[in-house]
Amino acid sequence: ERRAVPALETASQKDEDSVTRVVALGALALMDPDNAARVTAMNPYLTHDDPLTRMKAAHALGQLGDRAKAAAPAMAKALEQATDPHQRGYLARAIGQAGDPQFLPVLLAELAKETDPSSVAIGEMRGAIHRLGGKAPPQPKK
After folding, report:
1. Per-chain mean pLDDT for the chain
2. What is the pLDDT of residue 121?
3. Residue 38 falls in which region: left (phi positive, over 0), alpha (psi -120 to 50) or beta
4. Percentages helix, strand, coil for the chain, rounded to the nearest 5?
5. How many Cβ atoms sit within 10 Å of the Cβ of residue 135?
6. Which one, of 40, 48, 98, 8, lies nearest residue 56 by Cα?
7. Is residue 142 pLDDT above 70, yes or no?
């Protein structure tokens, strides 16, 4: 819906909440995925102080697929810093969606850190590893 562009532009630049800004930027990038400026505008949010903002930035970039490949190093760093299983799952999925197999070692290392077999992050990490052409170790028996 192109009529939303002005409101999204305003929110992406002026909203006080970093999550709202990055979600607005993500929506704009999805509307215009070949616009490199729209994609790179989200990159600073991958290193934001707020972990939820980092996750939302990675999620939005992941939706752009290989157009976000250049952001994969920052997504990987955000994954390494994340402690919340929900956020770790989103970050792992975004790395897989970006499509750069050089981040398989990061995904495998982060998967190994997951000790709770019911963690939501495990499935996302395994899926991202598979998407990048890797093979995750077998899941431990419950």
Report:
1. 94
2. 95
3. alpha
4. 75, 0, 25
5. 10
6. 48
7. no
pTM of the entire predicted model: 0.92
Crossing angle, helix 120-131 and helix 85-98, to 10 degrees?
10
Three-class DSSP labels, the chain: CHHHHHHHHHHHHHCCCHHHHHHHHHHHHHHCCCCHHHHHCCHHHHHCCCHHHHHHHHHHHHCCHHHHHHHHHHHHHHHHHCCCHHHHHHHHHHHHHHCCHHHHHHHHHHHHHCCCCCCHHHHHHHHHHHHCCCCCCCCCCC
* Contact status, residue 140 vs residue 114, Cβ threshold 8 Å: no
